[in-house]
Design a protein that fits this description.
Layout: E1 29-30, E2 48-49, E3 53-58, E4 62-67, E5 80-86, E6 92-99, E7 104-107
Antiparallel strand pairs: 1-2, 3-4, 4-7, 5-6
């Protein structure tokens, strides 16, 4: 995967907010590189990415939930995903859990 330089930050800055993306529809991968005072580059840092979630109504009663896999935990990967639903009052209810290799879930009514 080809990386694009999007920012160079001062040495004391430990966070960065990328306002030019739409994480609700597009998957992005980020990686941090460092340079020392002699301008020598470090090795590649750990990559970070987001999960894009989509929900489709099936037969007017079910919700098909699909998401992009989370890749940033390396070879061990994701052990499992927790499926939750947000209630009208803003709190969350647990629905189910699925193995980390699964990226789809059918909510059979809530």
């Amino acid at each position: 995967q080809e990386l694009e330089l999007i920012a160079e930050l001062p040495i004391y800055q430990t966070e960065f907010l990328d306002n030019s993306v739409n994480v609700e529809t597009t998957k992005y991968t980020y990686q941090v590189f460092a340079r020392n005072i002699c301008n020598t580059a470090s090795g590649a840092g750990v990559q970070g990415d987001n999960i894009v979630l989509t929900v489709d109504v099936v037969d007017d009663h079910f919700h098909q939930i699909d998401w992009t896999p989370y890749l940033s935990w390396g070879n061990n990967g994701v052990g499992f995903y927790l499926i939750e639903i947000q209630k009208p009052d803003g709190t969350w209810d647990f629905l189910d859990s699925v193995p980390g290799s699964v990226t789809t879930y059918m909510n059979k009514g809530y």
